[in-house]
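Dock S-adenosylmethionine; give full complex structure.
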Amino acid sequence: MTHHVSAGHDRDSHAHAHGMEQPPDDLVEILDLDAEMFAPYLDSVHRKIADLSEGGVRHIVDLGAGSGTGTFALLRQFPDARVTAVDSSAPMLEQLTRTAAGKNLAARVHPVRADAGKSLPGVSDADLVWASASLHHLDDPAAAMDVIFAALRPGGLLAVAELDGMPYFLPDDAVPDRPGLEARCRTALTSLHAEQVPHLGSDWGTRLAAAGFDIAYEQTGQLRPAAADSPLRERAGRYAYLTLRRIRDAVDGLVEAADLKALDTLLDGGAQDVRHRADLEVRSTRQLWIARRPAGAGS
Ligand SMILES: C[S@@+](CC[C@H](N)C(=O)[O-])C[C@H]1O[C@@H](n2cnc3c(N)ncnc32)[C@H](O)[C@@H]1O
């Protein structure tokens, strides 16, 4: 779900080396597939927010809304609500706006282009700020907490949904002569993330408390939504393919050539390809904090 593993120039050289056209931007599809895989989890989180909300949820801010996975699920959970969808990426907001129109939800969705870490323009008295896989992208999370705190009404909720990186898909021996392949790629990615997204894996509970929020709920779950016999299997194969393709480009130069070659066998349409493996399983660690701006607290 995190998309910062992409390394554009490596992607290009990989594509050319394999005689392919440059792949289209796959991020929207990755975000949508992730939401599809984890839909029951997302629904349960949104029900938890409904349980904790005091005074109703009518104005929601989706912070770093992306393609709108949170926006549309929250509009289902809260039928009287409208969403201000904030993202710094114009193409993402355009995609979200098109999807809203296609679902006849345009009147309930207000797209705003902004650096959400610096300001949430025009937003005040929000009942809920939903930040899924977005806070770790912000330059200064402490400043962002203050911006969010000010945008919420007293008693309003901030829900932070984070993850430890992209999901895992394969057993240790997926490529028999390169055992531990996926784990080695993750180790290489961790060093990249430390440079590119240093706030990935932050302790958001501590940050929320430091900003004056009361923590109302905290949960960490190891989720396995698509096992070998799941009806989601084919979609899981597609998700694994898009993800591992990004990982392959990102770890080029960081792992041994034999590991890159092994990764290629998972993506080349042959017998080992992740799109039709029987041993594929989506596994991910998801973390959630639901925090409240204390009633009566000044901004
Ligand atoms: C991994 S995606 C998550 C999208 C969505 N929340 C979801 O869970 O499917 C992160 C999103 O945050 C956006 N983003 C990154 N930095 C941002 C910033 N400073 N302000 C607003 N949005 C930002 C990106 O453009 C991207 O759409």
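Observed: The longest strand covers residues 214-226.
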